[in-house]
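Below is how a single chain appears once it has passed through the pipeline. First comes the sequence as given, then the structure the pipeline wrote out for it. We keep one example in the README because the format questions we get most often are answered faster by looking than by reading.
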Amino acid sequence: MMFKKILIANRGEIAVRVIRTCREMGIQTVALYEASDRGSLHVRLADECVALPGPQSFMDPATILAVAQEQGVDAVHPGYGYLAEDVAFIRSCDESGIAFIGPPAEVVERLRNKIGALETARAAGIPTVVHSPRSFSEDEFDGLAAAAEAIGYPVVLKSCRGGRGRGERVVLTAEHLPDIARRAQVETQVVYGNKQLYVERAILPAHQVGVQVLADRYGNLVHLGEREGSVVQSNQKIVEEEPALCLSEERRAALLETAVQIARLFEMQNLGTVEFLVDGNGNFYFSEIKPRIQIAHTLAEMLTRIDLVREQIRLEAGEPLNLRQEDLVRRGHAIMCRLQAEDPFHRYLPAPGHLRHVRLPGGPEVRVDTYVYSGADVPSHYDALIAKITAWAPDRATCLDRMRRALEDTNVSGAPTNLPLLARILRDEAFVRGDYSTDVLSRMEVAPVPEFDRVQRDLAVAAAIIYARRREAFNPQTPDQWSSGWHRSSRQLG
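Resulting structure:
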């Protein structure tokens, strides 16, 4: 039976995204917010809203579950928030008779054990990144150093909990390890409450490729193709595209087949992304499975025209997957840019603030997912993401032109954004050729355009239009040969 009311245990653009699909399906929605976020678009669009004590409440399973019970919801959708991978929260929902829209607790638990997942895949004959056999706490630096030395530099330090690149650091030489490890452990403690790190061999240069999969509880499973997210800033993918350019057709087919094999190996259900690292020769290595919807899901939706949120809800409601692999066809090319409130002049640090003016792009095959508008606030407590801009076209060259135009149409004043960086990436020679990897940003020099230049331009245009309209209203310029005596006398009397 389909759900009647869903609580969205998240905020921002993903909450807006879920609310809109729920509305189309005739499902009531409950949104969550706290004081700094009360003006967010997801609060305005939901059928019901519940105030939380503070920003940390979004990460508090007990608080979210209590709200879900009080509101009498049938299901909880976590978006891509931290609760999406909180095994205890998922089990609490199950015990309370509330459906959790995502993979089951036992699947998430297997996948959260990053080292265990890699070992399981390797035992099944799947190529994996070389990694340490165990993780290390802050008082086990000698063991961490020995593992890094055994693997061989450069290496990557990774958190044993969560994702989103938090706590992830590349270490080029042994002398850099102590300082980098300390900073990585501080970050992962703050974010996940756990300082455990493990070590992987760094693949440099590398391509980050993810395969979107859908699966029901009856054993049916399909993939929706692969996307590449190799443009990375501060461990966040800020530009992604689909299909991936780093694969030959032969390697693409092999990677997609392997992704399905991995998803079945872990008994994947609902929606997830199987992630790989691809080296310069096209060899791919399994990295992890993200058991949740991700920011770049819009790419698969644009190429397949399948609403992934709708599919998530359907599958959790017990409906079978109504898609067959042979029927799924990807058409064209899509690029997604992550517009963030960041200061280009200060190492792209988050820059919350009041948005005086927001102009977001439109036009053919341009999609914008956002929670902001003119007059909205960007709170300081959350991710810097304010909008996702996704463009589709029949081919990559046209898609690039379309995305460039979309970025040119975009203007946000009141808080700095990474818009200059995105525009620079879309014009980078290597990116345009499709010959890029995770080091693409290190080769770029970005000179951000000061915000006030664009604001002044827009204000000047607006002022000119207002002036012209007022002159026209109070002093109509009717040509003399067309004007009557009434027109002429009225102007004289005026």
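The chain has 16 helices and 22 strands.

See the next section for the split statistics.
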